Amino acid sequence: QSALTQPASVSGSPGQSITISCTGTSSDIGGYDYVSWYQRHPGKAPQLIIYHVTNRPSGVSDRFSGSKSGNTASLTISGLQAEDEADYFCTSYTNINTLVVFGGGTKLTVL
Amino acid sequence: EVQLVESGGGLVQPGGSLRLSCSASGFTFSNYAMHWVRQAPGKGLEYVSAITGPGGDTYYADSLKGRFTISRDNSKNTLYLQMSSLRPEDTAVYYCVKGSSLVNFDYWGQGTLVTVSS
Q1: By three-state DSSP, how is residue B115 classified?
Q2: Phi, psi (5° rounding) for residue A84?
Q3: Of A46, A97, A104, which has the smallest distance from its Cβ to B108's Cβ?
Q4: Which of residues 11-40 of B touch A (CB under 8 A)?
Q5: In the prediction, which pLDDT does A29 show?
Q6: DSSP state string for B79-107
Q7: Is B104 in Cβ contact with A99 (below 8 Å)?
Q8: What is the predicted pLDDT for the residue at A92?
Q9: Which 3 state secondary structure label does DSSP give A5?
């Protein structure tokens, strides 16, 4: 069981917006603004798409956005495209010895 | 171009030991934190361990502490993970990951499979 809880799957049609949640505790998401999101296509290495809750690395589409409320972080993808179909997982800094905790991952299907 | 190449995986019996290596190139290795992350068959990614650039600080998943040891040789641009008292539940693909910071990851290796079975 992963430390951070994500829905196993979400889906949406091209052009729509979807949101993926990532729920933790006050020891991780709720206590710090060190939430990151990664996109992972099958057989490929994960790509960082959001860091420090809301920031996008250079080159990442502005269709990806992040937010946080309490112990839950969210990734929103607007204007869904077929290429967005992938697995998405969140991570967070934790003040428990581990340093970083992972979400279980969410499979996004573009219908 | 950043490259991370893991080696050392394989089949090991329960209770055995294994040392993974990760050869890094394409960046100033000593300047960056490095991490090990694993993925068991059919499961999500799990954080294993991290080490700061100079190597002075190390971090471990609570469930692994005492059995795994992370280290690095900055003169050889190589990251290591010494694993002992291995259990079947340690079976996974182990990824070497470069940190863009201590808590973010920007480059991943292709992974090396560790299978713990009798």
Answers
A1: strand
A2: -80, -10
A3: A46
A4: 35, 37
A5: 96
A6: EEEEE-S--GGG-EEEEEEEESSSS-EEE
A7: no
A8: 96
A9: strand
Contact B42/A at CB under 8 A: no
Cβ count near B29 (within 10 Å): 20
Residue B58 and residue B50: Cα distance in Å, rounded? 6
Asked if the Cβ–Cβ distance from A99 to B105 is below 8 Å, we say no
Tokens of A34: 């060190």
Q: Is the dihedral of CA A55, A25, B50, B111 positive or negative?
A: negative
Q: Is A88 on the interface with B (CB under 8 A)?
A: no
Q: Determine the Cα–Cα distance for residues A89 and A21; give it in Å rounded to an integer.
A: 10
Confidence of residue A87 (pLDDT cuts 50, 70, 90): very high
- Torsion of Cα atoms, B104 then B56 then A27 then A20, to 10°: 10
Output the six-digit token pair for B76.
């050889």
pLDDT surpassing 90 at residue B69? yes
Q: Which of A5, A98, A107 to mutate to test the interface with B (most CBs of B within 10 A)?
A: A98
pLDDT digits (tens, 9 = 90+) for A24-80: 999 999 999 999 999 999 988 899 999 999 999 999 999 999 999 999 999 999 999
pLDDT in tens, B7-42: 999 999 999 999 999 999 999 999 999 999 999 998
Q: In chain A, whose CA is at the least distance from the CA of B60?
A: A98
Interchain pair A103, B44: CB under 8 A: yes
Q: CB-based contacts of A104: which residues, under 8 Å, 6+ apart?
A: A1, A2, A4, A5, A6, A8, A89, B44
Question: What residue in B sits closest to A87 (Cα-Cα)?
Answer: B44
